[in-house]
Sequence to fold (279 residues):
Amino acid sequence: MREGTAVTDFYDPPKTVIGEVDPETAERLVALYDGLPGPVFRTSLEIAEMAKYADNVWHALKVTFGNEIGAICKKEGIDSHRLMEMFCADTKLNISKAYLKPGFAFGGSCLPKDTRALAHHAVSRDLDLPVIANIARSNREQIERGIDWILDSGARSVCFLGFSFKAGTDDLRESPYLDMIERLLGKGCQIKVFDRNVELAKLTGANRSYLYGVIPHVAELMVDNLEEALAGTDSVVVTANAPEYRDAVDRIRPGQRVLDFARLAEAEALGERYDGFLW
Fold:
């Protein structure tokens, strides 16, 4: 409930979150808030507390992002309000739940390039925009957490199921998984890579140039079939929620571990040999 509009917000909340200590008390709270609009979430006290922080930090981030975009617009003589009116009209990706579920780092040909371009342009115009300037750094830290997670699991021979930046594509440009493979090789890990969408003979243009020009030795790690990929490895890194990778998880042999970046819920049956990144 916002200061200045608390009464209005009480009667018209976007949601009601109840952190339960015990069911009886929670039922009384549900009855107390009965009839108010919006969904009611009954959850643990810890999640309810974190929900409050997540909400307010998100609001602060929105204010800061809008102001940083506004600062660039002012330098360039652009109508920032007209711009953000168009920005907010996109309720599919911009103002939506898209991209907000915790997962792994972004990659590809668009997000890294445009983030760097805008950050660099701000510097060239003598603008200090800390949020935009540190997006790439934060993304890099997510990759570092992923690498640490794999190494801390004790993995030494690793099979990557998928390594393009987006599932169902052969786009390898700035894939965070390629970065991980490079780093793990440097740490002495043995790596195999299987990705049905990436066929070396069919790669063309920027994709082919990136693979063979920037990281040519990674191509030597690729195998043609799932059986070969799984053979002789102690850990399986799942990067994409694809049907063939669900089948692979079902074939995991005793002693192998699944490290899941793709949130394959079916893999939970593996118990202690299954670990989902940021679940």
Summary: The CA atoms of residues 30 and 48 lie 15 Å apart. The first helix runs from residue 6 to 11.
